[in-house]
Amino acid sequence: MEERLYWIGFNLVKGIGAVRFQSLLDYFGNAESAWNASPAELSQAGLGEKVLERFFELKSTLDLEKFRDLIDKQGMRVLIWQDAGYPPHLKEIDHLRLYFTSEASLHRKTVGRLR
């Protein structure tokens, strides 16, 4: 699976904001490794019990590839910080991790989050 799918997944977890997500990236090296980590590893990385519960509940019910297909069907693209097309000025916004764009929104500069 592509890295951006794990970014989408983490963006859906209540209690994992930009700062906590960056901490996970720093600890595990990438979102995929964090997504596949054990509860003990995630706890060591700084996630509390409630966030761990929400994460594993979501993970057990969410099919990331189907969710991506839903986004694709809407004609949207999800850009993450590492993407060349991610707007540089948006990297300065603390709470924004994903940038949604479509052909129409490219002209309107529309920004969205998955929450």
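Second entry:
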Amino acid sequence: MRLRILSALLIASLLATGCAASTPPSSPSPSVAPVTIPQIDAAHVTSVQVRLKGDLELASEQIAVTAQGDTVVLSGTVGTADERQRAESLARSVKGVEKVDNRIEVRPAQ
């Protein structure tokens, strides 16, 4: 008799734990919105180029403007560190530009 009771209790507990483990959660997982990374496009590059060419200090300098993902890349040469910094500041002033990789080299005129 005891064996039957123990067997029944064992079977009941196994069934109860098995059912509890297989029930779905009562509340759904919150959905996470995908993160979008803003991209720099040709319009941003053109806007930076226009700003640089329209600046009296930088108009004659050889500065190339390209885009890599979400970053504007400046390259070329200028005569002073102030001109290098000015080019970066002008690039950052364009709406939508948040990252600037300034690869401009300073080479003083000889």
